[in-house]
Write a structure and sequence with these properties.
This protein is an alpha+beta fold. The protein is globular and about 45 Å long. The model has no long low-confidence stretch (mean pLDDT 81). Helices cover 34% and strands 30% of the residues. Helix 1 runs antiparallel to helix 4 (81-94). It has helices spanning 19-28, 44-51, 56-64, 81-94; strands at 4-13, 35-40, 70-78, 104-114.
Amino acid sequence: MMESEGIAFCVIVRDVEHSEEIIAALMEAGASGVTIINSHGLSQATFHTHSAELSIASVMSSLFTSDKHESRVLVCLSKDEAQVKVFCERVAQASPNIDQRGSLIHFAIPVSHLRGLVG
């Protein structure tokens, strides 16, 4: 299989319970699959609040042992820009609070040297 170019469509979901709705919307929009990455976020305010009293290692350690900042990153790969636009629309429809700060973020990144994507 030859290398090609594509697009990585990413959604950062802060409310992890909302992930299933977003995944369903992506699958219905034609995603061949969704990679789900459990993640933890660190806001600048939290970092500055705790960095004076703790080392960065302590701040990071507390993040990984706490559910407070848990989020999910959903990633779909596509070779079709039109499909990515549909992903954007479907995620917005499935997320009525998308413009609310901290709800979720979605974006697309061009990918070069894409190999192994079927479909």
